[in-house]
Amino acid sequence: MSKSFDELISKASGCTLKKVSVSNAQDAPVLEAVKAAREQNIATAVLVGDEGKIREIAESIGMDLNEFEIIHEPDTEKAALKAVELVHNGDADILLKGMLETKTFLKSVLNKEVGLRTGKMMSHVCVFEIEGIDRLLFLTDVAFNTYPTLEEKANIIKNTVEVAHACGIACPKVAPLCAVETVNPKMPPTMDADALTKMSEAGELPGCEVFGPLSMDLAIDEEAAVHKGVSNPVAGHADVLLFPDIDAGNITYKTLVRTAKVKNGNVLIGTSAPVVLTSRSDDFETKLYSIALAAVIAGSITN
Which NCBIfam families is this protein grouped with (predicted)? Predict the structure, then answer.
């Protein structure tokens, strides 16, 4: 079981070398991450974008492009579509967002002809290594789905459990987060959390254990759970933190990134191959950790 990104990178390095298709690769942090991923035997890459800019940036960071394929396409939308098509056709294992807006990137991912749709619900998973916590935390959904219904929350759990399994967690503990730990009809997220708990008990959410509603402190802090008298294997030991909506998830994500000592990686799943969906403002380490996470997910399918 991977408890840190160092362990996750080691796991990724032990898998068959993956190939990343980089959409609009003319970005320094992206190329630094691709360079590091190759050096650590995680993945090689096809760089799709403006070749002149790619070569200029690569030279500035000491990146040997002889180890990588470059497809010259200066048009942002065409480059995005080409990068997706490579994954769609099986010529790459992972899709990585480079220097383009998320909406343009996702438009290509959802393309009806060469996109990565599977019929499953797509959702975003952010994996955090946080100083002081002895395990990786899987936050979902903090970036893609806005105000999920009960059915959508169940599907988000199923997607996230697949990621946790790929990371070596045999039976992840899932906490549907709410402001309080009691069921209150006037607070719909607590009703959903209770319903998800009952679905888990009925075997409708296999491969994991779900218990909620739980407040954040009770989900991740064993002492808090004991102090408040909440006795359940999930309470205080949650691996997966299911947020009630994108507001709660995104605020938590950005607070952690900006105020705590963390490492994190992000993927979009429910697609035919893992999609690395990071912000253009993310540093190269976050992009590297995201590639490693995606490689582990891809490796769980083929290794």
Answer: P_butyryltrans (TIGR02706), PRK05805.1 (NF004472), PRK08190.1 (NF006045)
Provide the CA 295 distance to its chain's centre, in angstroms: 11
- The predicted model gives 128-156 an average pLDDT of 96
- Residue 87, pLDDT > 90, answer yes
Tell me, rounded to whole angstroms, the distance of Cα 290 from its chain centroid.
7
Which residues lie closer than 8 Å to 194 by C-beta, 6 or more apart? 183, 212, 213
Give the tens place of pLDDT for each residue, 237-295: 999 999 999 999 999 999 999 999 999 999 999 999 999 988 777 788 999 999 999 99
79-100 per-residue burial string, b: 16 or more CB within 10 A, e: under 16: bbbbbbbbbbeeebbbbbbbbb
What's the pLDDT tens digit per position in 93-123?
A: 999 999 999 999 999 999 999 999 999 999 9
Taking each helix axis as running N to C, give the angle between helix 5-13 and helix 284-302, from 0 to 180 degrees, rounded to the nearest 10. Answer: 50
- Region of residue 175 (phi > 0: left; psi between -120 and 50: alpha; otherwise: beta): beta
State which amino acid sits at residue 195: A
Contact 270, 160 (CB under 8 A): no
- The two counts, helices (H) then strands (E), for the chain are 11, 11
Distance CA(183)–CA(126), nearest Å, equals: 27
**What DSSP character marks residue 121?**
P
Q: Are 150 and 196 in contact (CB under 8 A)?
A: yes
Residues with Cβ < 8 Å from 23, sequence gap 6 or more? 48, 49, 79, 80, 83, 84, 95, 96, 97, 98, 100, 105, 108
Bridge-partner residues for 95, per DSSP?
Answer: 21, 275
303 — pLDDT class (breaks 50, 70, 90): very low
